[in-house]
Amino acid sequence: MDLRTGIGLKDPWKELRKNVYRNVEPSVKLIAITEPTKEMKESGVDSNTLAAYTSRHCWESTTKYTDDPKANNELDKQLTRKLVQMGHDTPLQAVNYVFDVDGVSKALQAQWTRHKIGIGWSFRSTRYVKASGNQFVYNTYDYITDEAKVKELLALDEEINKKAIELYDKKLELGSTKQDGRKVMPVSFASHCSFFANARALRHLFKLRLDKHAEWEIRRLSAMLLEEAMKYTPDIFIDLYEKYTTTNEEQK
Ligand SMILES: Cc1cc2nc3c(=O)[nH]c(=O)nc-3n(C[C@H](O)[C@H](O)[C@H](O)COP(=O)(O)OP(=O)(O)OC[C@H]3O[C@@H](n4cnc5c(N)ncnc54)[C@H](O)[C@@H]3O)c2cc1C
């Protein structure tokens, strides 16, 4: 089961969004991650096990290391899982991630930026960048079964978005600054950003935002971020990944 299905997100009307006015779908790409130095890598430490390595001082357990980098790496993978399980979270701050995120709405941004600790963003400026080319994030309406109603809802959303662009351009023509003009934009307008977070903060975000009580768009984004983080640091996130890819009706 994939993560989105695991958390109970469906997307039955994806095809209907294809030709909708300036629709943009979300995308998430991990573009950088903390990497140990050459010397450390040669001794078997990588991004996935760096946190565990730093925690070894806590118990002076470096003596368990051998001359075999592979064996050391294996020991630290196990230790990573143990740290997570115990809630020994501070070493997870050693690993920092940079994601390139596109196609998320202003409505999502308002929720996402409530997270403050170990986390940051560089968003496209709506004060300085002209909004005439804005794209929009459309709802999945996955809780509606009647296709005709979904078409009608998407048409309403399109109408609002088209009107917003028209009004924005008109305001600028009349002499409004971009920062005053932007106030006609609906919260569905899409943004592009770089997102920075350490592994501890990411785990916290995932616990809150993959949960069924969170809003669907931020749940979808969290699933995409987790999928990316799993590629390089599986042992830091495997518990959350397994929780949401294992059938469990309770989580939906
Ligand atoms: C399902 C859901 C519904 C929500 N609904 C609403 C809503 O209706 N209205 C609304 O305004 N917000 C709402 N929120 C936002 C929520 O209140 C938090 O602001 C947001 O989830 C960020 O969480 P956080 O503070 O734990 O994260 P972070 O800011 O990243 O903080 C991480 C951790 O650091 C500690 N910490 C952070 N700041 C402080 C501090 N000042 N003092 C002491 N310890 C601190 C806490 O342990 C915290 O968990 C909702 C969140 C969720 C997940």
Structure description:
By secondary structure, this protein is of the alpha+beta class. The protein has 2 domains: 3-30 and 95-233, Gyrase A, domain 2 (2-Layer Sandwich); 38-92, no CATH class. Helices cover 47% and strands 12% of the residues. The chain contains 11 helices and 4 strands. It has helices at 3-6, 14-17, 38-42, 50-59, 69-86, 106-112, 147-173, 178-181, 199-209, 216-232, 234-245, and strands at 27-33, 96-105, 119-123, 190-198. Strands 1-2-4-3 form a 4-stranded antiparallel sheet. α5 (69-86) packs across α11 and α9 (199-209) runs antiparallel to α10 (216-232). It is elongated, with a radius of gyration of 22 Å. The mean pLDDT is 94.
How are the SSEs placed, and which strands pair?
Layout: H1 3-6, H2 14-17, E1 27-33, H3 38-42, H4 50-59, H5 69-86, E2 96-105, H6 106-112, E3 119-123, H7 147-173, H8 178-181, E4 190-198, H9 199-209, H10 216-232, H11 234-245
Antiparallel strand pairs: 1-2, 2-4, 3-4
Helix pairs in contact: 4-5, 5-11, 9-10, 10-11
Bound molecules: flavin-adenine dinucleotide.
Features:
252 residues; alpha+beta; Gyrase A, domain 2; 2 domains; 4-stranded antiparallel β-sheet; 4 strands; binds flavin-adenine dinucleotide; FAD-dependent thymidylate synthase; Thymidylate_synthase_ThyX; thymidylate synthase activity; EC 2.1.1.148
Structural class: alpha+beta
Strand content: 5-15%
- Using the 3D structure, state the CATH architecture of the largest domain: 2-Layer Sandwich
Number of helices: 11
Could you say which small molecules are bound to this protein?
flavin-adenine dinucleotide
CATH level 3 topology of the largest domain: Gyrase A, domain 2
Number of E strands: 4
What is the radius of gyration computed over CA atoms, rounded to a whole number of angstroms? 22 Å
Give the overall shape. elongated
Biggest β-sheet, characterized? 4 strands, antiparallel
